[in-house]
């Protein structure tokens, strides 16, 4: 698809349920985000999304759904607008990608029938997108999430290390960017009813180097009495871990897609 916002052609992978071609009905949608270094093919090639989802649907563990896997690696890596607002990936996602796929395919375009999940960098995208737009997603499932900076100082270090950006931004610009891109800050400060309107499934392995941010978010949610599922299973930051997580995620988001 063509993106005016990113001034480029953008790719995405799509999973269609087995009965899509023979039915006339519309389907729920899961936006499934890849991690850093992968692209729209990551969940297809390494995550085995076709086999796992086909099996989950056939076994009755997941409802038939469409899965959209966008590319967030081409041009620049990441799911967010940059601090200079020159690369606006998040705007592309909500203003161009979602309207495009939800009109091109038979998708039920309402909050109840829309979910988001992702791994690592995509787990961070899942946190931020659902926190920025709780009115759009019924469920969010961050896996081994890179949950954003835990402090403004950490954010400055990341800008310098990852983007070679040592610009001395005004304090208010830094603070605003931090507050919008730290899942921990948002969990601690956003209106609790907004956060509660999303069903949360958070999973991070006991040997994962991203354990700290996920653990602190879990604690913050407990303190604010925000319902959520939090899992720490044996494993690290690996595709083996995420393949094992995917059937559970499909079942979790299906619970919202079904009638309660």
TrEMBL record:
Q: Which UniProt keywords apply?
A: Carbohydrate metabolism, Glycosidase, Hydrolase, Polysaccharide degradation, Xylan degradation
Q: Which top-level group of life is the source organism from?
A: Bacteria
Entry coiled-coil feature ranges: none
Do you know which InterPro entries this protein is assigned to? AB_hydrolase_fold, Esterase-like, Mycobacterial_A85_antigen
Q: Give the GO biological process terms.
A: xylan catabolic process
Would the keyword tRNA processing turn up in this protein's UniProt record? no
Listed GO MF terms: acyltransferase activity, transferring groups other than amino-acyl groups; hydrolase activity, acting on glycosyl bonds
- PANTHER family, from UniProt? DIACYLGLYCEROL ACYLTRANSFERASE_MYCOLYLTRANSFERASE AG85A, ENTEROCHELIN ESTERASE-RELATED
Under what name is this protein listed? 1,4-beta-xylanase
Organism encoding this protein: Flavilitoribacter nigricans (strain ATCC 23147 / DSM 23189 / NBRC 102662 / NCIMB 1420 / SS-2) (Lewinella nigricans)
Lineage summary: Bacteria, Pseudomonadati, Bacteroidota, Saprospiria, Saprospirales
